[in-house]
Amino acid sequence: MREASRLAQNGEGGSKHVAAAEQQTESLRVKVWRGTQEGGFDAFEVPPSENQTVLDVVTYIQRELDPSLSYRFACRVGMCGSCAMTVNGRPRWTCRTHVSKVTDGREITIEPLRNLPIIKDLAVDMAAFFDKWERAKGSFTPSADAAADFAVVEPTSPKRRAADEAIECIGCAVCYSACDVVAWNPDYLGPAALNRAWTLVNDVRDEGQAERLAAVSGDAGCHACHSHQSCKTYCPKALNPTGAIAGLKRLVAMATLRGEL
Ligand code: SF4
Ligand code: SF4
Ligand code: FES
């Protein structure tokens, strides 16, 4: 299993890559997870560069040292959410994480996100993560009246502000990886799907509120959250899924008291 094999560092493949880069004088020693749930770490030496990000390091390894390394990225500017990995034990968006901010030494360990199946090396299967957005009714339910005029939603209204605060999610799964309840209960909807539900619960144009509240209640829903805030701590967009989930808990409780759930 992956947890156990974390100790199996720098096998023969790793030594080969270190040798290939020996001529570089100053270098960052990088341990990278290879394989799936089963696997081990390879070690590489990567030359430092100005403003070097963790994604720069991974890209250097893939382009210069080992083209078989698998990882995922797209935008490189913190918009697409595809580059998240575990860096020195913490989930992070790697394209906006500077090496100098996460290590004061010359070593860094890069692994795939936790709580998702590993496809290969640093690339995880996001299917379960996005399936949960669907389970939480995380898509907009339009009014049946397509001919209706545009809705006017006051920017300063409390519901609009609540929706705006949570809507900047980039779907990176950093919070999902940080959540211990997801680790204990893989059925739990998790912080991102519930945060998405919260934006829609506060969207006065949405017609699917009863179904959404039903979807986020229950054993795998908002009440499973322990409010320990790892999601909030690590969210690279400084969102607050814990607060969103607390809001859902209140609404579910009120709907239950009214006999609607
Ligand atoms: S606050 Fe809730 S959703 Fe966030 S990490 Fe903790 S248990 Fe998970
Ligand atoms: S809530 Fe934050 S950490 Fe979670 S998926 Fe969205 S942007 Fe990423
Ligand atoms: S590559 Fe798009 S958010 Fe990092």
Rounded Rg: 21 Å
What is the CATH architecture descriptor of the largest domain? Orthogonal Bundle
| Superfamily (CATH H level) name of the largest domain | Alpha-helical ferredoxin
Following the backbone from N to C, one meets helices and strands in this order, namely HHEEHEEHEEEHHHHHHHH
Helical content band: 25-40%
What's the number of structural domains?
A: 2
Q: Report the CATH topology name of the largest domain.
A: Fumarate Reductase Iron-sulfur Protein, Chain B, domain 2
By CATH reckoning, the class of the largest domain would read Mainly Alpha
- Strand residue percentage: 5-15%
Strand order of the largest sheet: 2-1-5-3-4
What is the subunit arrangement here?
single chain
Largest sheet: 5 strands, mixed
Q: Number of helical runs?
A: 12
Q: For the residues shown, what is the average pLDDT?
A: 90
Helix-strand category: alpha+beta
N-end to C-end Cα span? 41 Å
The rough form would be described as: elongated
Bound molecules: iron/sulfur cluster, FE2/S2 (inorganic) cluster
The parts where pLDDT drops under 50 for at least 5 residues are: 3-24
Number of strands: 7
